[in-house]
Design a protein that fits this description.
Helix content: 55-70%
Structural class: mainly alpha
Shape: rod-shaped
Number of strands: 0
Strand content: under 5%
Distance between the termini: 124 Å
Length: about 220
């Protein structure tokens, strides 16, 4: 039960709020004809002072209490467990893409650290599944950065985590470009080799024709 004026949590039997002095009144009995107040939806309140909080607020503006979203922390841990026991990288990529980005400071930073740990910057040189998993982590981490820029834009720990992630992402993109150049070079080399073989076959054909023409007068004698 909370005070309807300041939001302070009340003890059972309280007639007045200990914080603002608001009259709590007697609880309504069953069957009473008096008008009753009903709350719809979820009202977020600071667990320390009882002040109503806006969504995406990670620190109470009244008392400075830092909110910790236990459920989101659990979801990050659950993601780590699912990824650990997934049978292949394709399933892991699906798990990462479908993961909802948490809201609190600790959870966002924990997820970014997890993403940095799992992004393989050499994945472009591996299998398609390995590359797909790395791309999934990068796409989801970019979403986390967008939310963090709204929730904790000036946080120093977040700034360091962001810098570490961006460095890893740049290394991955560099590997992608390098692999593309190698692939283009191999394609060009194959085309040159094919052209060389074709030219050689044509030359052999010309030589055979010349020899045949030179041998024709001898056959007529």
């Amino acid at each position: 039960m909370y005070c309807t004026k300041c939001g302070r949590q009340l003890n059972e039997g309280d007639r007045f709020c200990s914080n603002c002095g608001n009259l709590v009144g007697e609880p309504l009995r069953h069957g009473s004809n008096s008008r009753q107040e009903r709350w719809e939806g979820t009202v977020l309140k600071c667990p320390s002072c009882g002040r109503e909080m806006d969504a995406y607020t990670e620190r109470c503006p009244s008392c400075g209490y830092e909110l910790r979203e236990v459920g989101a922390v659990t979801s990050v841990k659950e993601l780590a467990t699912k990824i650990e026991f997934a049978k292949d990288d394709e399933i892991r990529a699906v798990l990462v893409r479908s993961f909802p980005i948490p809201n609190s400071r600790e959870d966002i930073i924990e997820f970014l650290i997890m993403a940095v740990t799992n992004i393989d910057e050499n994945a472009p040189y591996g299998t398609e599944e390995e590359e797909g998993l790395a791309k999934a982590w990068i796409a989801k981490a970019d979403q986390a950065l967008q939310k963090a820029d709204l929730v904790i834009p000036s946080d120093k720990v977040y700034a360091r985590s962001k810098a570490t992630y961006e460095k890893k992402a740049r290394a991955f993109e560099k590997a992608l470009k390098k692999r593309g150049k190698r692939k283009a070079a191999r394609v060009g080399m194959t085309e040159n080799q094919t052209k060389s073989v074709t030219d050689t076959i044509q030359m052999i054909g010309i030589l055979i024709a010349v020899v045949a023409l030179m041998s024709l007068p001898l056959l007529l004698l």
